[in-house]
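Hi, here's the filled form for the chain we discussed.

Project: internal
Contact: R.S.
Residues: 509
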Amino acid sequence: MHRLFLVSDDEDFAQWVEKELSDYGRFVRKIDDFEFFIQQWSTSEAEIIIATEYAIESEDSFFKILNQVEIQDPFITIMLIYFREEDTFIQNLKDRNVVCISWNDLDFGLMEKRIEQSRSIKELQTRAESYPQMHSSNKSEYVNDDTDETDVEIKIEQPELTIQFGLEIVDKESPLENSITDNIEKHYVNSYSTIESKDLFNEDFEKKVEFIEKTYVESHQESSDEKDQEDSPQLKVSADKQSEEEVVLSRRNQTKKRYPKLPSLPKHENQIIYKDRVIIKEKIIGTVLIAVASTNRRAGSSHNAIQIARYLSGNSFEVACVELLDINVNPSVFKFLDDGTKKSKKMDDGFQSEGIDFYPAANYEKYIKILNAEYQYVVVDLGQIVTNQGRKSKEGRFFKEFFRANISIISTFPAIWDFQFLVNLVDKLLNNSWNKPFNVLVNFTDDKRYKKFTDTFTSREKRNLQLQFFQNNFLPDPLNLEDETVSIIPEILSSVIPSSKKKKRFYFF
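And the returned structure, exactly as it came back:
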């Protein structure tokens, strides 16, 4: 059982999340806000921190807390349930590997799934940093969980890290200013963040607040004349003479007025389980979109997109194959297939080869027109959709198109460096709420290398991340399919090929 730490002032949510994660872990401590958080978390030995947005006092203070937590435990899992529309603050948290879930997206099993995915990604990122050493030694430095047990822990030695935050280098030994203990009045005057907090206090302070409220009401009831009451010097209190309690009370009341009504949480009783919808059964309705993206440049997305399009055209489907690329990252290659003999059937600026309408270097407007041209299948080559910078990755121009496809496929090579690139891409997709299985097509590999590459992921990690690997043997000409490739592609596309077609043999001419 995992040790969980909850930071939330919402009692309904606290009860719901405790029940939701009852089989996954136990909450060793629950607090209302982040005041004196570090001290309480340090003594709790919690592995996972779950917080709601309204427990945060300000963005700056939360980032300072995040820095301190990561220094003490780089492998801690932090989850934030947020209420706002996704903005720069939420995106920055995702870039810091904070698991962010919108309140409106909460559903049964989602929190556990996202926590396990985050933990798996961190394990893989750590392993990727030592991947060359692992392959240069006969002795494995990681545990391959072939037993498929959920409670098997992977032991990873935590390195001594110097962590960079923005423009500052924060070393483990460096003292950090504790924003939690700053003067309350100072925070009140200087905090201009869009996030406000509910200030919750101990019983003694609550009594003081009640006394202030009572005194304030009684003082207003003493006079029956409102004008005299407003002009009374006894009731005018200058800002510099207000007590600390009055300042906090004023802030607290103002904050409450700005809170939106919280949406209803899903209830654990009367659960309704929906099975996966069947997209295609006896015939194709509309256009099926298949997206292929690569982990890095020259990792095979163009090759795979052409392979898939050739497979579909060889079985009498109308198919278009489109390049939708950021030319600064991915140069166009489809144009080299054009021999000038045939034009595309349905749209201009394309050509036809082997029954496929190719559209090289299409812009987004052209791409939308192709999607509406009534092809049965459109295969889009997106190329590299994230740029890699160590553990960090940046979304490419057409990153979101990978999400819109009926089938999305990741192309990769089995090289040592491709392992890190694959982990980065999976991490970036998960941070953007990816919720489908990953179809990973490993190119230009033999059986031995394929097994070595895929076995780097433990059974638990494959399950948590929903990784499905497919071996694509060496195939120099993507327009000339071989038996091995013919057996791979229908397996990947099984959910979008009509069942009537599946019963027939596939012929290529």
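Let me know if anything looks off before we file it.
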